[in-house]
Amino acid sequence: MTPTAKPRQLPEPDLEHIDLFDPEFHATDAPHAVWAAMRARAPLHRQVLPDGRAFWSVTRYADACRVLGDHRSFTSERGSLLPQLGQGDVSAGKMLVSTDPPRHGRLRRPLVAPLSVRAVEAWEARVREAVVAFLSPGPDGGVWDVAQRALRLPMAVAGALLGLPERDWDDLVRWTAMAAAPADPAFRTGGQGATLAVAHHQLFAYFSRRLREQRRDDLAEGLLPHLLTAAPDGVPLTEEEALYTCYSLLLGANATTPHTVAGTLLALSAHPDQFARVDADRALIPSLVEEGLRWTSPASSFLRYATADTELSGGRVRAGDAVAVWIGSANRDESVFADPHTFDVGREDNRHIAFGYGPHYCLGAGLARLTFRVLFDEFFRRFAAVEVAGPVRRLRSVFVSGMTRLPVRTPARPART
Length: 417
Ligand code: HEM
Fold this sequence. Notes:
Layout: H1 30-41, E1 44-48, E2 54-58, H2 61-69, E3 74-75, H3 103-112, H4 117-121, H5 124-135, E4 143-145, H6 146-150, H7 153-162, H8 169-180, H9 192-216, H10 223-229, H11 239-270, H12 272-280, H13 285-296, E5 301-306, E6 310-312, E7 315-317, E8 322-326, H14 327-330, H15 365-382, E9 387-388, E10 393-394, E11 403-405, E12 407-409
Helix pairs in contact: 5-7, 5-15, 7-11, 8-9, 8-11, 9-11, 11-13, 13-15
Bound molecules: protoporphyrin IX containing FE.
């Protein structure tokens, strides 16, 4: 029998008064219980903020796929992140996530081949190197903070992919963390708006400099030179488009990957029998990875705006309305996943949408899956268990679900004699 981790028994949520826009709410135990109630009782839920801005939420799997998959009825061009509700989007038509097809295809095509599952296989040795460095403090028997250390793991992979020098990685990790979770005290410098502005300024100034340097360097390696020469449909990418693409790749990788690593290890520590199952049969690692993605769903929400009056479960949204898609909820929808609150490393038919759905389906999915496969392969080789060794701290964010602190002890396997 597999253990269950049902949402903590909280009083039946009062859906009239929940605040899904509050980063603090997402750092509590509440979201899964609230989302379960929303799927059952209010699958199309409307929240009005004190300043009059309003958004709908969809929490069922079918509605999440409908909204993410239908760019004609639900545009990404007015902002695709809930915290920017009602502010428009200066990157519309220029950046991958905030551009609809057909123009979106022009930005996406140059990346499809370099990030294909086959192409990223060539990165396995680099990924393993980064994973081994990530796991290096584990074996000495002391306590180490998986959530903290994991922040650097995707940077080492994406840094190599983009050809960014290692001396810059710590700054880039800090700026991407600030951009992804500006409300969290671990990353905030001043107010939320100021944190976001500083992060964006630093990242764009950095990539602008890098792109200029790359133009002068014939021997440059990585994806940046490719972006500079890419000419989808015969028209080269503009400097601005290339800059936004660099930003999207780095944020896409850094904001999400660490939280699936930490969250899956937390689930394994809470479910030692699931740890034992993988330990006894390493062929389960690919399905552990998928279950870890479903379970953690680090890209927690995305936003779209309706372009026409449209029917969804539970009602109708009007043209111009904002609709938040809760991916973490869709991935626990009981009509799609058997025992959705059970962490089951052998789960079959795991059709999670942790990487999104439709035209914006994650470009880094192949690289992320490779990273997780290599990571758990190396982890199970080295360690006999994972035990939580101190208080866990959850990220304050409506957009990314994860942790900023997860101290663990990872007893090493006895040396073979
Ligand atoms: C656990 C790891 C990851 C998760 C859960 C994740 C999740 C997602 C999701 C949900 C989207 C869809 C956004 C939307 O519908 O508006 C997306 C898009 C994207 N992701 Fe990821 N991602 C991960 C890792 C990565 C990595 C490693 C990279 C870079 C190498 C990356 C780069 C991107 C890019 C560039 C897009 C935009 C695609 C487009 O708009 O066409 N992601 N990701």
